[in-house]
Amino acid sequence: MWCPRPGITCGSGTRRRQHIGRALVAMEYAVYAEGLRKSYGGVEALRGVDLHVPRGTVYGLLGPNGAGKTTTMGILVTLIKPSGGRAFVAGYDVVEEPQRVREHIGVVFQEPTVDRDLTAWQNLYIHGRIHDLSRNEIEHRARHVMELVGLEKFLHRRLRSYSGGMIRRFEIARALLTEPEVLFMDEPTVGLDPQARTRVWEVIEELKKTGVTVFLTTHYMEEAERLCDTVAIIDRGVVVAEAPPEELKARLGGDTLYLKTASPAEARRLLKLAAGYGDARLAEDGVTVVLVARDAPRLLPTLLQEARATGVSVIESRYVRPSLNDVFLMLTGRSLRDEEGGWSDWMRLHMRARR
Amino acid sequence: MPARPRWLPAFQAMAWRQLVRFLSARSRVANSLVFPLIWLLFFGLGWSAAFNVLGPAARGIFGGLSYLEFLAPGIVVMTVFTAGFGSGLGIIWDREFGYMKELLVSPAPRGALLLGRLVGDTVAALAQGAVMALLVSAVAGWPGVWGLLGGLAAAAAAALASASLGSLIALSMRSPEGFHMVVNLVMMPMLFISGAFYPVDPLPAWLRMLAYLNPLYYAVDLARGLMYGVHSTPLPLDVAGLAAVTAVAVAAAVARFSRTYIA
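Above: the input entities. Below: the structure tokens describing the complete assembly.
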């Protein structure tokens, strides 16, 4: 009997074929999840999460705080038991074979998980040993990963003397020590100053070249846009979209132009004109035309000329190119930015901390 | 692709970590020496003076030993026992500072991680016990090299038991405050009913029964027997009792850690 991987037991008859079919699908992806659910005391944190992470890509799980990002990652790295659904990481089932999954992943958590009383080298040494690397292997690779994150000069310093940004970069280095197939990062730049954030981004971009699969969660759309080959947008425990950022933005139909006129009558005339170029409507103020259309930079001068020709005077004009925030707004009816730092997040965090 | 991790490297790494941390945390060392020293000086010397009023009759209470000799093995065991409970505190801090997650996502066998930590902490506790044994020997009377080593061996088992109990409590507690409360609630009665400060034999039956469940009782009786030749339970029974209670504590802690899913 042929089995896709040692350790995956094959049943008999139809069930076996189904099982093999699913395992094969799972093997194509570095991370594959279907219908992941998790409830905490009746509250559903995840309500059926599906993920498809191609090998060797950077994949971002984007959503506001409390959307279920950390819970999803907790399940994928085998620290949280799902209430339902299945997930495979590096081809292994996270519930059935957590040990195998742990052998093939590196994890950078949202909060630091280092021993600050020890030096970077001591932390790396313990990490290597509990992952069954020999001392020689650890010495050899430690230099390499510390160079990758630009910390080679601080190898023998205690982590107590590291800044927050250095600790984050060190944790990336430590996670890479075992040459994992999949690197998980939970909010890799949260709480970092802009410079430190840029350094972490550069490290992740550097990783892209090495072929490791990176799975990161973030609530910063700039981060998702800059780093990710694929973005999954998660909201209230469900993935509402999963595609490359450009494709997601293209779903919005293009750029948004705002043209303000002097009177409602002029606005109505301009509306008719604009409707020929895309999806046009009047804004609530009654004097501004909102037009969604492709290639705003070239369209705007044309439109202004035509408006002048028909006797409409445009007194104000601007256009906005779509961001992932607009995608989020379209999909959920809410803004990613509105959610940031709101009191509801504070409550949620606070309550989670107390649990 | 890394091979399936073996047991030994993880065990060794964790034990090494505890010893490195121990050597760099001087305040912890001082703390665990000062507390028993206070007992020896202010409690031991005080009662010793009080019992001297009775003259030779006092020795009858303590199986022929002076009170300081009676107390000395108890102080050594108490030192390593309280130091051992610090192992649980280490788990609490690891969870507070996130390091526990680093351990939980590693493929190392959970049993190896915890046992390595327990053994590392036991060795650290024993180093403190050795210092204390030399100090009390100077005050109470030299028990001989073999007596000293025997007493320390008994203390080592007690340290392993208390490290396991401390870890078990730490893994079951959510907050550092809860840990401190439970530890005090467990540790104080265990110390008092160990026979370290007064003989257990004259106690009411129900208290004696509690003593026989206490790993510390066997450790103290064994240490006293080996150091000064006085004991109330046959020594092989002490060894068996200490081994049994310690084994149960270690097994319970490992079982609890293996079931730990998220920090």
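Note for the figure: Chain B touches chain A at residues 1-6, 9-10, 12-14, 16-17, 20-21, 24-25, 97-108, 113, 261-263 (CB under 8 Å).
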